[in-house]
Description:
The complex is a heterodimer of chains A (178) and B (167).
Chain A: E1 4-5, H1 10-29, H2 39-60, H3 69-95, H4 97-107, H5 114-124, H6 128-140, E2 144-147, E3 150-153, H7 157-171
Antiparallel strand pairs in A: 2-3
Helix pairs in contact in A: 1-2, 1-3, 2-3, 4-5
Chain B: H1 4-31, H2 37-58, E1 63-64, H3 65-88, H4 90-99, E2 105-107, H5 108-130, E3 134-137, E4 140-143, H6 145-160
Antiparallel strand pairs in B: 3-4
Helix pairs in contact in B: 1-2, 1-3, 2-3
Amino acid sequence: xxxxxxxxxxxxxxxxxxxxxxxxxxxxxxxxxxxxxxxxxxxxxxxxxxxxxxxxxxxxxxxxxxxxxxxxxxxxxxxxxxxxxxxxxxxxxxxxxxxxxxxxxxxxxxxxxxxxxxxxxxxxxxxxxxxxxxxxxxxxxxxxxxxxxxxxxxxxxxxxxxxxxxxxxxxxxxxxxx
Amino acid sequence: xxxxxxxxxxxxxxxxxxxxxxxxxxxxxxxxxxxxxxxxxxxxxxxxxxxxxxxxxxxxxxxxxxxxxxxxxxxxxxxxxxxxxxxxxxxxxxxxxxxxxxxxxxxxxxxxxxxxxxxxxxxxxxxxxxxxxxxxxxxxxxxxxxxxxxxxxxxxxxxxxxxxxxx
Lengths: 178, 167
């Protein structure tokens, strides 16, 4: 006997519609002059719009009104799943190192040697850009700090996060990472 | 409205499927020989999902398809995000490398040279060659037709979402 119940509740249907809106919201927010070039902020704005649209549907559309808290939680998780899915793609498009190398080759009108590829990366900024960009992120998160020419893990936050990452890498047998 | 016991069964089933997925990824990554870790994680997640649905069919109890699927995929997507970061994030790699150094410190130039310029760059280049997106020629690395297709798709998506430069 097939034991599945395929019933879609009102809040869940509204969550599916709101999730489909996410790439369209991204398309629009990416063209807003005030957040031009700020990919993370564009994504955050899109996510907020999607959740607000869903909340509006729950409040004002009778068919989407929840009958219990579980329907709201499942609906929110459905949107959360869609957000994580798009975030994976968005992160690859905006921060992907390997894809960045492919795009560099694509934009060159001739084959590139390894040193040329490294120099031409990100429109000529080179691989040093990655180091500066990622370190700026780590510094602003309070995970590392500078001490003269050296980069140092911060005593509590940096060491704790690094320790957790190290454990997780070992647990998943991901010795060759990065 | 879905009954409370159906929701409960579905939540437990989705959560159990997720736990199975994480355990299976951890075990298979230890046993794998050459397969890419990312491919292993995604394949195992899909197999775990199908297995979860299979168990649901065999339970002989009412199960909500959507609740089970959402519980499973919400947790699994978070796991895959963390997995992806541990596997390929340059930032986390810098942190883990610093953690292994004496006094948890290293010169900027040493990290740049050892990791960014050499190891990480070479890993990416090897991945590009392994996937046949590019081939080495006497003049340097040239994109294959497959690589051109992927690069065009990425460039089109970047244009669509006004992402000027990636990396």
